[in-house]
Fold this protein.
Amino acid sequence: MIFLATFFVFLFGLAIGSFLNVVIYRYNTGRGVGGRSGCMNCGKTLEWYELFPVVSFLVQRARCRNCSSKLSWQYPAVEFLTACLFTATFLKFSDQALGLGAYFSFFIMLVSWCLLVVILVYDFRHKIIPDALAYSFAALGLVRILLFVPTTPAFIFYGTLLAGPILFLPFYLLWFVSDGRWIGLGDGKLALGIGWMLGLGFGISAIVLAFWIGAAASIGYMLAARLKSKGKNLTMKSEIPFAPYLILGFTIVYFLSIDVMGVYTIFHL
Ligand SMILES: [Zn+2]
């Protein structure tokens, strides 16, 4: 039974991922999300049998059936990623007592993953985090906190409420001190939501993980670039998108409850 349900959640995630691809491409272009998708190159409207997530992409060997132009790997990647996140969240919730609060917070998580997937790809492509998406994620975090007010001791409630602003603050300072050159304020807005979603202890854990992974990736990237262009001077690019690392840190901590700094263990916040 649980296997069948998990399978359906995975298919549902694929379908939603397919929709997110449309959102990512049409966001801020003035086009609505209605209407059937077409090829980006020749504009041919896709047939119904070309609209199956992942499968169509593989069957067509990553090419348009009409003009044979290459299709972006972003399509199946976003679909598969969304499906995995939905499935993992379903499994995380499936061994909990199912109250109304759990249903709400499951739904909040699914919507949150949608926002984060769009932010992730959007930041990769345009190096900017749309405000509306970051604030929506933060708002969902607040709603989640309020859901658990009746069952949460007061000091944990206030600690979680403060977690958002506390995590936002260092990003704001970095942004303020560097005049926006080191880091965009969008990353801070994302950290606000991460604090409200995870609470203070796990929130700090997610941000620290993001910095570690981001630093490791930057060093790797710089070494690779240095090997390619022998002798030329390279400094750290200021425009490395940081949102993907924040989202990765959030995802790891959300599913694995990793407490790198021991804050949660010590203070239970
Ligand atoms: Zn085409």
In short: Residues 185-228 form the longest helix (44 residues).
